[in-house]
Amino acid sequence: KDYSLPIPLTSFVLFAGKFGSARASTTALRVPAFKNRTWGVTGYSCPTAVSIYFCKTECNTGLLCMIILFFLFQDYTATIFLRQRWTDERLCFDGNKSLSLDGRLVEMLWVPDTFIVDSKRSFLHDITVENRLIRIYPNGTVLYALRITTTVACSMDLTKYPMDKQTCTLQLESWGYNINDVMFYWTRGNDSVRGLDTLQLAQYTVEDHFTSVSEAVYETGHYPKLVFHFELKRNILYFILETYVPSILLVVLSWVSFWISQSSVPARICIGVTTVLTMTTLMMGARTSLPNANCFIKAIDVYLGICFSFIFGALLEYAVAHFCTLHQLSSKEVPKIDSNRSSKTSTDRKRERSKYSGCSSPMSVMKRLFCVFDCFHVKNPYHIDNYARFSFPLSFIIINVLYWVYYLYF
């Protein structure tokens, strides 16, 4: 299958500096005499002017595959109809019609050494023959078209995934000719790229695209470079239905236990454990479609962590409520004792407490913890569920408002 995106691009122009080459005569050019006309003249020397064009296409084949590659491996695959146009005065001939030649004759012509920067894999289509076109006009203009598929790297920032925006580029440079030899520029600026306004992608929307001209600086010199920028915004509707809605429903399901009697231990434990395990599975499934980018926390990780905390908190709430209920029942069964004995017992407790005050044994630590819990003593443990019915939904709504406002507008 061809996992490629036909990117619609139109025209940029490259002008070459003058080279010492004799101008050929302007006699009529005939196809059988093409080899004699170009031998030793146009094969390796640069002409006086060169123009390069990209074609416009409306094809939508393979867009889904392109997004999958882009998303997992931080790159995108594009099929480009590359049309290069330059003027070679040595190929002028009399007439008013252009000549379309076989693509294999390209070896007899000078062609620009344009290459794609950050390309991982590229190939020229050759079914049924090599997809090349050579067309020569009477004024010496040469149109050289070819169809290539390339996979270009594109670094992504996933801190706001899936509310993120990605900006990718397609950079074109001259390999051997520096700025003293050739010069690149877009003939119509941003209008040189057409068709992206009607382009439809599976997970992305093309928000903006523009072109720019720059120079690439290397040790061997400065080289002309053209850059095509396009900004993609991820469609969040898919992730809302796939991840966010199930997470919210699991949180709401964990609140059902607040309306179940505390005496129904199996029912409440079953709901709590089931929701925790389901949420864990959902978190693992959401991470399988992400690249290995563990160096930063993504927006979806934050939300899943919030939902998991609320679900786990609902399970802990029942544990606390059940413990307080048992503690209250056990305290009611203790028989009443007289005041003298109680005062004596309290005096003995104070002596034991002063005796072991300097000891850091586990028992002393546990006693201090129980003293802290006594400060939060609940007279009626059944009111814990009433508090949870109100506090859990309210806090979840407030956190959701803060989450969506931050990641959508900041």
TrEMBL record:
Main location: membrane
Reaction equations catalysed: chloride(in) = chloride(out)
Keywords of this entry: Cell membrane, Chloride, Chloride channel, Disulfide bond, Glycoprotein, Ion channel, Ion transport, Membrane, Signal, Synapse, Transmembrane, Transmembrane helix, Transport
Record has Translocase as a keyword: no
Residue ranges with Basic and acidic residues bias: 337-355
Entry's transmembrane regions: 61-82, 236-260, 266-290, 302-321, 390-409
Subunit structure: Heteropentamer, formed by a combination of alpha (GABRA1-6), beta (GABRB1-3), gamma (GABRG1-3), delta (GABRD), epsilon (GABRE), rho (GABRR1-3), pi (GABRP) and theta (GABRQ) chains, each subunit exhibiting distinct physiological and pharmacological properties.
Family per similarity comment: Belongs to the ligand-gated ion channel (TC 1.A.9) family. Gamma-aminobutyric acid receptor (TC 1.A.9.5) subfamily. GABRP sub-subfamily.
Record's function text: Pi subunit of the heteropentameric ligand-gated chloride channel gated by gamma-aminobutyric acid (GABA). GABA-gated chloride channels, also named GABA(A) receptors (GABAAR), consist of five subunits arranged around a central pore and contain GABA active binding site(s) located at the alpha and beta subunit interfaces. When activated by GABA, GABAARs selectively allow the flow of chloride anions across the cell membrane down their electrochemical gradient. Pi-containing GABAARs are mostly located in peripheral tissues.
Name of the protein: Gamma-aminobutyric acid receptor subunit pi
